[in-house]
Design a protein that fits this description.
single chain, alpha/beta, Rossmann fold, 2 domains, ten-stranded mixed sheet, three-stranded antiparallel sheet, 8 helices
Amino acid sequence: MFLIILCLWGTKQVQIYEALNLKERAFISLVGAGGKSTLFNRLANELAHKNKRMILTTTTKMFSWQLAPFVKKGRLIEGRNEESVRESIKKYFSLESKGGRLAVIEEKVEDNNGEEKLSGPPPDWLVRWWEERIADYFLVEADGAAGRPVKAPASHEPVIPLSTTDLVGVIGIDALGLSLQEENVFRSEIFSRLTGLNLGEKIGIEALAFLICHPQGLFKEAPPDCRRHLFINKAEDPEDLKMAEELTFQVLKISPRGISDIIIGAAGQKEVVAEVIREVKTP
């Protein structure tokens, strides 16, 4: 097997779902930091054009505004009883002849700052719904990062449903050069322990690569049979792209077979995908 690099800037615009090489039915969970919610929104909008049944939710907590655009164009189902929620989902999709998108939450809560957040249904509900095939796509934000460009997971994180077929680990290339402290890195002490970088030192490519490849790092708790996709985000200019490519090669040097593909891009830009480095099997 070998790796093929597709350089995409200035050519045909590649959609995120194409870069991920998603099947016609997929359970996608997003973890990490550095634009995860923006990527979630962009991917949801892309999948909506495929006219499939899609469930959007979280296994942690999301701000209400994150799901607001989808509630306007689809529907929000809220409930703490699995059977009633399941029946509401089935009823909604039965009325949508060409599919539809549906936000599903358990309840609305307030955080310490008084902002409204949404908590999602238990992961085992999602696993059962996937097995029952009540939707074609599940898109799940399975991790929180408090808006930082990079994070290290705590013992209880992330919360990835076992039915996940495609796990997308997100990291912001803008973390490079930042000082390792809590205002820049969510759970900075854990980051320090996993990477060997001391608090207060500058974050370099090697430290990010160690975080990505460490068993307790970016892809911690990945279901054994899922495909792992690395999305290096915020590569918004040629210098960012160069740094992202250097990170890519460092990751491949440490863990050449653990990741299905590496996508370099910028979720906040018009053209999200810049490059795809994909593992290809040869005869």
